[in-house]
Amino acid sequence: MKFVLFQRDQGIVNRTLPMLSALLCVVASVVPLHLPGFAEVAPGFVLMAVFHWSIYRPDLMPFLAVFLAGLCLDLLNGAPLGLSSLVFLISRAVILSQRKVFVGRSFAVVWAGFVALVAAAEALEWAIASALNTMAIDPRPFLFQAVLTVALYPVVSYLLARVQRNLLMRA
Amino acid sequence: MRERSGSVSRLTVPVRAAAQRVAFPFLIFLSVALIVLGKADILVIERARTSVSDAMAPLLEALSRPLGTVATGVQGVEDHFGVYAENGRLREENARLLQWQEVARRLQTENAELRALLNFNPEGVRGFLTGRVIANSGGAFLRNVLVDVGAHEGVERGQAAITGEGIVGRVTEVGERASRVLLVTDLNSRIPVVLDLSRERAVLAGDNTSRPRLLYLPAKTGVKVGDRVVTSGSGGIFPPGLPVGVVASVEGGVVRVEPYASLSRLEYLRIVDFGLNGVLPQSSIPPPRSPRQSRRGQVEAEGQ
């Protein structure tokens, strides 16, 4: 008997769409915007995607997908390889454990949870980056990135929800 | 997930659940291992980085063009509001610059005469390439950009990246189609410089802020705000005399330099081959193929 690894009701579309959205977020993070003063730091689009899919369809974005998304982001950013992967993996684990709090609740609750996650993720990234460079890096860019990420989450969340509702096959 | 009938799906669900439980610690370990290995500067990682940059380069190039147009549009709106004041400022600057032009012309003739006297052979620019910035590293502690020229056009590691205003950084990774330039404001950037007038040597060290610091200045230094900073040529990294920036603050014993180049608005960079190898080791990355003559020494055709 053939050993079927994937359940038959989930097509290729289902499996690749969340990963594709994460990759799009990776590209969006590095495209130069030339906005005065903002060009230094990009919002954490990938973290938004990881957060959204981990809450609503964790089966479509397993740990490996999250790890690969982090790898792509680091490779394009020129960051130490594995840094973003680590942050995203831990984020997903934390979100999974708290999933019941968010599923089915209002957007405000989800957004508040996202704020907490971003704060923790940026703090973790700052800590690892400081350790790697053996000096306390100025935390202000991390703070600014956190604020930017939180501010843009509603837009990205809306887009991802539309994708989820319209393009994913029901499972 | 819907319940499915059939023994096969009953098999797969626990397998996948178990796989997920194992995946997390394994991937965490892999990430930490990669971070640690990355510190060792392994060639494989650099190759992976350049491969990904090369693969994404066409997409990034396509994306950054319309966004460049948007940025120009935004800039245009901004400019519109300050037209009157800008006009007055430009008139003053023009008058000053005309005076400098006179001085420069006199010095140029004098320079040429003195060089002729000494039979001086200047090390010249061997060639330059113009590249467009296609990606801005968006990390909170990274300051580098991707440009759309690579080994195919003759870019080599260690080459200088400049704009018309001053130096921007150095090429650190070279792929076939894209290269990464480390900006002077990055944490890892160290550039030997010298104060233009007092000739005191120092090192320009980036620290992730928009104003890199000057390290290793002599203790009794006479540096003041407004002093011009240029490259010193030490270590063969950059040739001497390239404009770097101007001293912006001297508070608390820390001297900060405001770079001439506007690093947050980079769109086109010039990658210059001064024929220097500097301190970046000639790694075992295969040397680029002979550069195409048609792109060398090309005057900037695309401009703002």
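qc> The mean pLDDT of chain A is 86.
qc> done
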